[in-house]
Specification:
- By secondary structure, this protein is mostly helical.
- It has two domains: 234 residues, Lysozyme (Orthogonal Bundle); 55 residues, no CATH class.
- It contains 14 helices and six strands.
- The strands form two sheets. It has a three-stranded antiparallel β-sheet with strand order 2-1-6. Strands 4-3-5 form a three-stranded antiparallel β-sheet.
- β1 and β2 form a beta hairpin.
- The longest helix is centred in the middle third of the chain and has 26 residues.
- It is globular.
- The relative contact order is 0.14.
């Protein structure tokens, strides 16, 4: 326990030193029993602002640890967990039988008959964080080189789980799940013979440019026209940017213009989780919930396995590289 406390104190000291100089902090982590170190971008706001106690990210943490043959029956609006069940058995039922089960669960939990319930299958076959961790350092370095907060690289890679690179149902592909048109806009070749979205470095550069020249500027534009104050380093702002990365500025802009928020912060993100508008639907609502859950799990893994944590500022990286 002493060792764990020492690591935590060292981490906080590192964070304070680094935060004083930069708008984000990258630390270098050495893992127990491993000679290879890796980079990590922590965000203390997850804990200090209590994002880690919200029902939604904790719901997704459970989904990420659950086998795909199991499922969680939950309240759609709040992600309150009502019951665990066999997903195999659930799928074998007719729609009428499923409706009857939902009715019984609503009655048992004292819910209104109109309460919408979701049945969410386990996804531990997709979210393989141990396999993703080695790619984080490379993504973090590339985003730093491109002048983009590397927290975005870490988070997108955790969400998209690049160890399972595959096409999405709308045609996005690669470790950063870029659409064809977006990839081409930012310099990648995508045609019948070549698809550079599967190239990690080129895909990372493309994603960093998408964030730098489109997602972040559009986030500011949307908030500015709604007179919502923001700070680019705030966690809620970064989560807002991720919604644009996933759903597009048009969908998110329409959503916010319709919501007419008075100010930003956690409440705006949690309201987004419960609001649909145009093309912004359930999958879009989930994106920042999954982002939070993924980062919380990553921190748990790192604190459990790390031997020590050291600051890794741009200057230190340059010195280290010059000595190789």
């Amino acid at each position: 326990m002493k060792g764990k406390n020492y690591i935590l104190l060292l981490f906080m000291s590192v964070w304070l030193q680094t935060k004083a100089q930069y708008n984000y902090n990258v630390v270098e982590v050495a893992h127990l029993g491993d000679t290879i170190t890796s980079y990590f971008v922590p965000d203390e706001q997850i804990a200090t602002e209590r994002w880690d106690v919200l029902a939604q990210p904790n719901f997704w943490k459970k989904v990420m640890a659950l086998s795909p043959d199991s499922c969680i029956i939950n309240v759609a609006e709040t992600r309150q967990i009502l019951e665990y069940a066999s997903f195999i058995n659930w799928k074998s039922q007719t729609e009428e039988e499923k409706d009857s089960v939902r009715d019984v669960i609503r009655w048992m939990n004292g819910l209104d008959s109109n309460t919408s319930l979701y049945v969410t299958s386990g996804k531990n076959h997709f979210y393989d964080f141990e396999r993703v961790i080695p790619s984080l350092s490379k993504g973090i370095e590339i985003f730093e080189q491109q002048g983009v907060n590397p927290w975005y690289a870490q988070t997108i890679l955790l969400i998209e789980s690049p160890g399972k690179v595959q096409y999405s149902n709308v045609g996005a592909y690669g470790p950063f799940q870029l659409m064809k048109s977006v990839a081409r806009t930012y310099g990648l070749t995508v045609n019948k013979r070549v698809d550079e979205r599967k190239d990690f470095e080129k895909s990372a550069i493309g994603a960093s440019k998408l964030l730098k020249y489109s997602c972040i500027p559009n986030a500011k534009k949307i908030l500015d026209r709604n007179n919502v104050d923001y700070n680019e380093d705030d966690l809620w702002f970064k989560l807002f940017v991720l919604h644009i990365y996933h759903a597009g500025a048009g969908n998110v802009g329409g959503l916010i213009d319709n919501m007419k928020p008075d100010y930003g912060g956690m409440w705006l993100i949690t309201d987004i989780w419960q609001t649909e508008f145009g093309g912004f639907k359930n999958a879009s609502q989930n994106y920042s919930q999954v982002a939070l859950a993924s980062n919380i799990i990553l921190e748990e893994i790192i604190y459990r396995k790390c031997e020590y944590i050291l600051p890794c500022t741009p200057e230190i990286s340059q010195i280290s590289n010059s000595n190789e």
